Amino acid sequence: MTLHGTAVTLRPTTEDDASDLAAILATPEVARWWAGYDEQRVREELVRSPDTGCFTIEHDGEVIGAILYVEEPSPDHRHASMDAFLHPDWHGKGLGSDAIRTLARHLVHDRGHHRLAIDPAAANEAAIRAYERVGFRRVGVMREYERGPDGHWQDCLLMELLERDLT
């Protein structure tokens, strides 16, 4: 299924995207938050993973990033988690928020989730602002939640969006 935002298109990620996505993940601005990705890891974790849905983000036919989600299928805890990255040339242009909003609408309206979560590094202020533009709210800091590129544990900010908060 291909999803259309205002300025971006989200299409299922394929093996052919691995090289482009690995190159984006290798840029210093993205690798700061997404360390250690090469083509093989992109294939294993973004393309072939049975637990993760991944869309390649395109703008005017150019691959500019990826957005992914994981669903909790339990009826009593049903929700989805999201994550995204964009090539630095496209940061600050509203395309990240457009991609996030597009996937959020799909997860809420088409997949039946009433709650979405996202957990950027607490220091990633640009990502946090993009998520807030879509309607995500800050829940709290998860201390030493993930290993950063330098090998040390870093705090992440738990953010959530309820169906009624989707802007």
SSE layout and pairing:
Elements: E1 3-4, E2 9-12, H1 18-26, H2 28-31, H3 39-47, E3 53-59, E4 62-72, E5 79-86, H4 95-110, E6 115-118, H5 125-134, E7 137-147, E8 153-162
Parallel strand pairs: 5-6
Antiparallel strand pairs: 1-2, 2-3, 3-4, 4-5, 6-8, 7-8
Helix pairs in contact: 1-3, 4-5
Overall geometric form: globular
Order of helices and strands: EEHHHEEEHEHEE
Q: What would you say the CATH architecture is?
A: 3-Layer(aba) Sandwich
- Evaluate the radius of gyration: 15 Å
Count of DSSP E strands? 8
* Secondary-structure-derived class: alpha+beta
Strand order of the largest sheet: 1-2-3-4-5-6-8-7
Write a structural description.
An 8-stranded mixed beta sheet has the order 1-2-3-4-5-6-8-7, sandwiched between helices. It starts with a strand and ends in a 5-residue tail after the last strand. Strand 1 (3-4) and strand 2 form a beta hairpin. It has helices at residues 18-26, 28-31, 39-47, 95-110, 125-134; strands spanning 3-4, 9-12, 53-59, 62-72, 79-86, 115-118, 137-147, 153-162. It has a single domain (3-165), classed as Aminopeptidase. The protein has 167 residues and is an alpha+beta fold.
